[in-house]
Amino acid sequence: MRSESSALPRRLLVTGGAGFIGSNFVHYWCNAYPNDRVVVLDALTYAGNKRNLAALDRQENFRFVQGDICDRALIDQLLQTENIDTIAHFAAESHVDRSILGPAAFVQTNIVGTFTLLEAFRQYWEPKKTANYCFLHVSTDEVYGSLSPSDPAFTETTPYAPNSPYSASKAGSDHLVRAYYHTYGLPTLITNCSNNYGPYQFPEKLIPLMCINSLIGKQLPVYGDGQNVRDWLYVGDHCSAIDVVIHRGVAGETYNIGGNNEVKNIDLVQMLCQLMDELAPQLPVRPCDKLITFVKDRPGHDRRYAINSTKIKTQLSWTPTVDIQTGLRQTVEWYLTHRDWWEPLLSKEYQEYYRQVYTQTSEL
Ligand code: NAD
Ligand code: TYD
């Protein structure tokens, strides 16, 4: 892969660039590499939000295209007309609870969509085989399955054992990406990261859900016994990791990206409640932890995820910089000051989704 300092601007196609991580990445990249061209392809599903990219609208090197990664003709056309050399592939159905309610969309976007992109990129790349091209596939630690409290953290060689329709569809897409490197020599890279948090995360995920529910005085639903563990990665750290993988990663390799912040769900929710009590002057219910409600567990709920990031640290000199206390405080402050961003997302569709998940997981 080409190094950061070596000359020519890149031309990126960022799929899913209007979603949570994708939009953070687009802002990160446009700021770090203003001479690079960034084309976002996003279907604007319920999780995509064009407002996440509003600040870039007038920038010459930025373009937004609304479209589906399963639309082969559109992808062919974008690769050719935009002379793309780098695909950063974020687009996915990304929420485990939605995959339990309706797995079909996960198979379609995550597997068929990734296949469509790979095929298009292969046929575009094969006649030229230019050295600096790359296809970076953003995946998850959930493909490795569930750990017990004493198991060592996931490494790049941990066998795949996905447990939800979401993680199974991501595992399927990872296998396709791997196969395109081994079979066709397509310059692919895979990253498997842990749970992200930060600005622009859709309200249905744990951290924004707890922030928003506290602000509107709704119960804070903790699944099961609240002892499940996640390794939290601040989204800005994830973006810098993808940067080093695109610039310095070795084609065909996988890199695990973790935040080094393993926390039990109940402890995380308590930390959020304390931050809310401190930072939000007009909470409907105070202290905020009065709203914590243990609800029926998510089916097939993985007990623990933990990432061993030694490979990316030692081989590519990347390390996370944001600890959980700092990152959570920044995130809570962001949700407190961006009510105009999240309030419109609590739409009828969202209320219906909420009703379905939280009636199935009603109070114990
Ligand atoms: P997100 O749900 O916030 O955003 C996904 C984006 O993809 C949305 O903008 C949506 O409109 C778009 N999209 C969905 N289907 C599409 C399609 N068929 N064609 C084009 N665009 C489509 O997700 P996120 O949290 O930003 O996750 C981004 C990527 O990172 C995903 O691949 C996810 O699996 C992976 N990941 C996320 C996390 C996390 O904690 N959020 C952790 C590990 C890995
Ligand atoms: P989530 O943000 O959905 O991410 P993932 O399932 O991909 O890890 O959930 C993070 C953890 O929080 C997970 O263990 C499930 C739990 N959780 C709750 O306890 N209550 C909730 O309402 C939600 C959305 C998640």
Structure commentary:
The protein has 364 residues and is α/β, with parallel strands linked by helices. The chain has a domain at 11-198 and 234-259 and 306-321: NAD(P)-binding Rossmann-like Domain (Rossmann fold), CATH 3.40.50.720. It contains twelve helices and 13 strands. The strands form four sheets. Strands 3-2-1-4-5-6-11 form a seven-stranded parallel β-sheet, sandwiched between helices. Strands 7-10 form a two-stranded parallel sheet. Strands 8-13 form a two-stranded parallel ribbon. Helix 4 (104-125) runs parallel beside helix 5 (165-184), helix 6 (206-216) crosses helix 8 and helix 8 (265-279) packs across helix 10. Nicotinamide-adenine-dinucleotide (NAD) is lined by residues 15-16, 18-22, 42-45, 47-48, 68-70, 90-94, 109, 113, 138, 140, 170, 193, 195-196, 202.
- Which molecules are bound besides the chains? nicotinamide-adenine-dinucleotide, thymidine-5'-diphosphate
Q: Largest sheet at a glance?
A: 7 strands, parallel
Q: Provide the CATH topology of the domain at 11-198 and 234-259 and 306-321.
A: Rossmann fold
Number of helices: 12
Q: Which strand order do you get reading across the main beta sheet?
A: 3-2-1-4-5-6-11
How many strands appear in the DSSP assignment?
13
Portion of residues in beta strands equals 15-25%
C-alpha-based Rg, rounded = 20 Å
Name the shape in a single word. globular
Topology:
Layout: E1 11-15, H1 20-32, E2 37-42, E3 62-66, H2 72-82, E4 86-89, H3 96-101, H4 104-125, E5 134-140, H5 165-184, E6 188-193, E7 196-197, H6 206-216, E8 220-223, E9 229-231, E10 233-234, H7 235-248, E11 254-257, E12 262-264, H8 265-279, E13 292-295, H9 310-316, H10 324-337, H11 339-342, H12 348-360
Parallel strand pairs: 1-2, 1-4, 2-3, 4-5, 5-6, 6-11, 7-10, 8-13
Antiparallel strand pairs: 9-12
Helix pairs in contact: 1-7, 2-4, 4-5, 6-8, 6-10, 8-10
The structure holds nicotinamide-adenine-dinucleotide and thymidine-5'-diphosphate.
